[in-house]
Amino acid sequence: MIPLSTDLHANVERIQTRLGGSSDIIIRPLDLNFPQEQCSLVLVYIDGLVENGAIHEFIIQPLLAVQDNDNVAEDYVGIKNVLQQIISIGELTSAANETDLFEGILQGHTAILIDGVSEALIATTCGWERRAIDEPQTQTVIRGPKESFTENIRTNTTLLRRKIKSPDLRFESLSIGRYTQTKIIVAYLEGIANTKVLEEVKRRLHSIDTDSILESSYIEEFIEDKIYTPFPTIMNTERPDAAAAGILEGQIIIMIDGTPFVLLTPVTFFKFLQSSEDYYQRYDIASFVRLIRYMSFIISMLLPSLYIAITTFHHEMLPTTLLIGLAAQREGVPFPALVEAFLMEITFEVLREAGVRMPRVVGPAISIVGALVLGQAAVQAGLVSAAMVIVVSFTAISNFVVPAINLAVAARLIRFFLMILAGTLGLFGILVGCMTILIHMASIKSFGVPYLAPLAPFIQQNVKDIFIRLPWWKLNTRPSSLTSNTQRQPAAPQNAEAKKNKP
């Protein structure tokens, strides 16, 4: 680290050289005439990243007004004097080297360099344009908070503070990326988060050495446990309530400046099939909907492969009437069931991607019309059977039921793997594929937490919120796989009636 010089002109020249004379760099000199002697100052900031009104009101005006104050201390150039007597701004730090100086300027702060002083003052004056808090776009709920994280990391920490009003909530920051210097904040609840997991998260973050971090997926790929797996081992969310719920259960949140998606870790497989709305509805309705999700996830992986296996190898499993109908439909189809399924699945994936990339106004229309027209035309042309169109359509709809997009994408990849096994080995191939997937999932860990916990290993007290959700008064413990402080509330009475009649 190169220390700053006491020569103001040398420091300014170094700033101009290092920043290449960019047009958005503002260098504002100030000559102040104090009763004792003259003082030269320079304000350095980036236009567009700062709030100009704050610079004028809290820095320039106090500096100019102090000239007429006969009581100003003689050591007016001292850092302590400037901090306490002159500049009236909320946060003021010092930078003794060029690294800290440029970091402060590039983050939207104002640097104040004083002639004869080898330290610069860094005043917090960030004020760039930011997106307003809006409804979540990818994780919507019918009942629940209608706010989402934004690209501004300080707004995101505020949203978490509003949810968790506890002095034990901790925010620890660091910067990653040689060029982007992206601000990362690790959020957790002291006394709830597992200290070993927390230290491991920090170690992995500090070990990242790259030139840029532009989105949370960069961090996710750098710190995840298992690289070669379709299953996500780190969860992401844009909902402050979901992030707050994770913190209260012992999870650690990683927030990245510039993206509305935060990362939650450690995580288990079953977390990806749970939604925030599960906890905003009655437990019986939430449990029913959650079971629908599990069924939809299984259908999205297995339905096309089951159709291929049964129609190719295991005709005896179908009722005679259905078998005759399917045979009549496939009579004019020139392709085997495996090729037919691949053709329809790839077509639907292309339509799905086109709907995402098209302008928002016409995207949904193109997807729906394209699917209807192509499906009908393919059946009439004899390229695919009507039953295959139904299977692929229901599979796609089931895939949309999965609340976590990264898990839904994993199901889509696994689907093609199982289709190949079904087309070559039938139901036996599907069985082998499913066993391979289960063994693979059992070998995955997320920061030391088994991916299939609390089923493998089996933890009885944590099963109450896996496939179904018990009433809130029975969820008196946190998952022991995430935290050692499992007590959430006092133990509930044996039944609701006893609780109501308790004196």
Biggest beta-sheet profile: 5 strands, antiparallel
Strand order of the largest sheet: 1-2-4-5-3
- In N-to-C order, the SSE pattern is HEEHHEHEEHEEHHEHEEHHHHHHHEEH
Terminal Cα span: 68 Å
Tertiary shape: elongated
Assign the structural class, choosing from mainly alpha, mainly beta, alpha/beta, alpha+beta, or little secondary structure: alpha+beta
| Beta-strand share of residues | 5-15%
Question: Which regions have little confidence, pLDDT < 50, spanning 5+ residues?
Answer: none
Describe the secondary structure blueprint for this structure:
Layout lengths: L7 H11 L6 E9 L4 E9 L5 H14 L13 H8 L5 E4 L2 H9 L3 E5 L5 E4 L29 H11 L5 E8 L5 E8 L5 H12 L9 H8 L11 E3 L2 H9 L3 E5 L5 E4 L17 H30 L7 H10 L7 H21 L5 H18 L5 H16 L3 H21 L1 H17 L1 E2 L2 E2 L45 H6 L2
Antiparallel strand pairs: 1-2, 2-4, 3-5, 4-5, 6-7, 7-9, 8-10, 9-10, 11-12
Short recap of the structure:
44% of the residues lie in helices and 13% in strands. It has helices at 8-18, 52-65, 79-86, 98-106, 153-163, 195-206, 216-223, 240-248, 283-312, 320-329, 337-357, 363-380, 386-401, 405-425, 427-443, 496-501; strands at 25-33, 38-46, 92-95, 110-114, 120-123, 169-176, 182-189, 235-237, 252-256, 262-265, 445-446, 449-450. The strands form 3 sheets. The chain has a 5-stranded antiparallel β-sheet with strand order 1-2-4-5-3, with helices on both faces. A 5-stranded antiparallel β-sheet has the order 6-7-9-10-8, with helices on both faces.
